[in-house]
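Format notes (please read before filing issues)

Several people have asked whether sequences and structure tokens are stored in separate files. They are not. Every record keeps both together, in the order shown below: the sequence lines, then the token lines. Line labels are part of the format and must not be stripped during preprocessing.
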Amino acid sequence: MGYPEDVLAPDEQLLLHRHPHWKMLFWPAVTLVLATAVAGFAAGYVSRTTEGTTRTALLVVVLVLWLAVIGWRCVAPIVSWKSTHFIITERRVLIRQGVLTHTGIDIPMNRISSVQFRHGIFDRLLGTGTLIIASSSDEPLEYDDIPNVQKVHALLYHQVFEVDRGTVGGRGGYRGDGEY
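Then the structure lines:
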């Protein structure tokens, strides 16, 4: 059993599992290309203009700087993206984040008082947006970069409505293929 199935109760059904939208990885990809180009140019320049131990030392400096930039601006965002999970079951909404420091929140369906979404033109072009979940006692929680936010909103609204009516697992439920 893999994540997120291992955080579910034995009879709990997974309806949706998403990572943030890939747009989160756009700038790390641009950084990778630009940093590699700059490091390649710098290594070529060092190789042509220096000799011996100086050349070796400068090439090591270029490599270390390239690795530091790639680790900070590329690897860290990719790991953050991969370790962020947005999960909907028929009973609750789960959000899990982090690698070293793992954080999470579970919102039971019967505690959700409203579900909203927001997305601008650019988000609509990419099929992403912000999902806003208000529970009965807390400030609304906003989750950015949810892929297909309108479908997720519809699924979550449907689940909250079904929980309110007490018909979860009955007819008209979510089929798991993006359709009802």
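For reference, the curators noted about this record: Helices lie at 26-49, 52-82, 121-126, 149-165. The mean pLDDT is 87.
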